[in-house]
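Deliverable D5.2: sample structural annotation.
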Amino acid sequence: MSERPADICLILEGTYPYVTGGVSSWIHQLVNALPELRFAIFHISATQGEAHEPRYKMPPNVVSLVDVGIHGGDEPALKGEVTEAAAWETIWRYHEEMKDGRADGLEGLLGQISPHAGAGPSVHDFIYGKPSWEIVRRLYETRAPDISFLDYFWTWRFTHLPMFRLLHAAVPEAAVYHTVSTGWAGLVASVQRVRRGRPMLLTEHGIYSRERRVEIDQAEWIYVQRQEGGIGRDDQYVRVALMQGNVRKPKGLILIVSRVITFGVGRFRNSPRYTLFIAINLLQPHRGDSGIVQERIGIGAHP
């Protein structure tokens, strides 16, 4: 595969080209339908070091494929760049802002601790370093002093290790970053938007946080008390990039959402355009089902 910069970098998690299914088929059709555009694929896998065989034949316009595992293994004892105490304090303040419902400090945070891949503390520093340990200790003492610190620490490590690895991952250069989910893929796309100043496109094919909550709710090893009721089966939520908020569909109604998204991927007026025509039909539930989602995607490229 070529190392030329891509027009579009697709940021994917647990899907194409290593897993077959609806989202993977959609992505494969998307890439094949736009042969004049160069695609890079940044794929996020569950476990570091595992070998994967693509389940799809890569189209010729895929110029690079990167696979990063976010769990498993340990980090080499590499020291990163010296990070001032003020930068670590910024990390602490960012946690406080998120607790208060604010999440607008990402750009400033990345500018201090990780302005580009490989900058700032190493993954080993984040996991084992004393400044990081002090932040974890302060978070525990102010937010969860009544639970086991051992449980708290390992939960923190499990949930944060992927983020530290992805901050250091080499993401291909591209004119536009397109992710088909939030979660870790959404984080990578957001980071690239901040670091490179390139457009970011999100087309959500599911509600990531709700899917993860369902998994947690079904997990037998989690001993915390669960809320009664959980996720209602009578509601459906659809989120499409660049739409305002969520669209809520009460039981018994039919919802049709359409949207056209176009990005220029070149520097000149006559450069190709990356266009998604999105139409989502949410059909009426029946027989106790929570609903059926049909999605039709038309892809076009035009000057």
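Annotation notes: Residues 225-271, 276-303 have pLDDT under 50 and may be disordered. The first helix runs from residue 22 to 33.
The annotation will be released with the project's public dataset once the embargo ends.
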